[in-house]
Design goal:
globular
């Protein structure tokens, strides 16, 4: 089992919550339809909407019925199917509690603990039983992807300590999901991306955000396998937006703003969106402006933190490497007592980015990396050398019949 360090920035999210004044001032109805269409609902999870939640009279009976049902289900495939169903219901119950009263933390924590326990049982059953894995894995993949998005959607509505718990649950879910059939992770995710293409024309932004989260959980040597998944989502996004109207640019900006990610992960997410090919120029320009604006706001917020706040923020990079993380670390101003920390982080980032360069065989992706490091001559040379290595040689010009005869003499 791959282990990872659960580091959360949520303790300082109050200072780090990123939202543009412009987006706040705009009428949210601009993207309300798209957000509603792409919301994770009971129907999408293929379960009934909960009629009662923790704290309601009679909820204890609902809980008893679930436990008895699972206890007397002896077939592993049927039990796993029910565990999947009940985990979705519990997550929807948590959403209902949050919508009714975000500060009802006692009821919410009880629901989340039940959710965690049933997810652990389901994960163990999938890993230890090939029949279960082969029978329900495709449906589990879709559900897990939806759970990650739903946990992300509700985490900005709760107190800091609960938001931290939700973040940790997301990471635990993502890692367990990856481990359930790690060899096939790319193929599994590509299938999910294909199936989750029926919502609004902006839906693939959410899908790409979820893949960005997964990237920060899986081992380094697996991240390259997720490139094909991101390419599939970007291709579908470009197809949906190929006839984008001028007013769609404002929708793109607000939709991206509404995607709730940890600040560091969102920094990577919004900047790598610029790698999406075949987008209309107005959408490309909007994405570029969003990326620049977000990076600048994140940098300003960082520099306004206390030294201790800055240290906690920098700890977020300890287990993460990505070209965008390296670029961000190169641009921030830090006090003298943290310069050693940033130097160490940049060395680690540099090693990770160099490994990414050497693992990349796609010329277009290497060109994108060139744009990212156009002000870094050392890294730029490595990228260009790699691009030379993987670029097929140009075909030799064909000889005319007379030249061929002369050559053969």
């Amino acid at each position: 089992m791959i282990t990872f360090k659960l580091i959360s920035l949520t303790a300082i999210l109050g200072l780090f919550f990123i939202a543009t004044p412009l987006a706040q001032a705009q009428d949210e109805s601009v993207v309300s339809q798209e957000l509603a269409v792409d919301e994770i609902t009971a129907m999408k999870l293929n379960v009934e909407e909960p009629s009662t939640t923790e704290g309601d009279g009679g909820y204890w009976w609902q809980n008893v019925k679930r436990n008895v049902d699972l206890f007397f289900t002896f077939d592993d495939v049927k039990k796993a199917t029910k565990e999947q169903k009940y985990s979705s219901q519990l997550l929807l119950e948590a959403k209902q509690i949050i919508n009714k009263n975000p500060n009802a933390t006692e009821h919410l924590n009880k629901t989340l603990e039940r959710y965690k326990k049933i997810k652990e049982k389901l994960s163990n059953r999938i890993q230890n039983n090939a029949e279960v894995r082969n029978t329900i894995m495709e449906k589990v993949d879709q559900t897990e992807f939806d759970h990650l998005q739903l946990l992300r959607e509700v985490s900005d509505k709760v107190p800091t300590d609960v938001a931290e718990k939700l973040e940790n649950i997301r990471k635990e879910n993502a890692l367990r999901w990856y481990n359930s059939n790690k060899e096939q992770i790319a193929a599994r995710l590509e299938k999910v991306i294909e199936q989750k293409n029926t919502g609004s024309k902006l839906q693939q932004f959410k899908n790409l955000a979820t893949v960005a989260e997964l990237e920060d959980v899986v081992p380094e040597d697996v991240k390259a396998n997720l490139e094909s998944v991101k390419d599939a989502a970007r291709a579908r996004l470009a197809e949906k937006l190929k006839n984008a109207k001028p007013e769609d640019a404002a929708k793109v900006e607000q939709y991206i703003e509404k995607i709730n990610l940890a600040p560091v992960v969102k920094q990577k997410f919004v900047n790598t969106l610029q790698e999406t090919e075949k987008l209309p120029s107005n959408v490309k320009n909007t994405i570029s402006n969003v990326a620049q604006s977000y990076s600048e706001r994140l940098r300003q917020r960082f520099e306004n933190l206390s030294d201790e706040g800055k240290r906690k923020f920098l700890n977020e990079f300890d287990t993460r490497t990505h070209p965008e993380y390296m670029r961000f670390l190169q641009t921030i101003e830090v006090p003298d007592n943290l310069k050693g920390k940033v130097k160490t982080l940049l060395e680690e980032q540099s090693q990770g980015v160099r490994a990414k360069i050497q693992a990349t065989t796609d010329v277009q992706k290497l060109r994108s990396l060139e744009n990212s490091f156009r002000t870094d001559p050392v890294m730029l040379k490595e990228i260009r050398d790699r691009r030379t290595d993987v670029t097929p040689p140009a075909p030799s010009p064909s000889l005319t019949p007379q030249q061929q005869r002369d050559f053969n003499r």
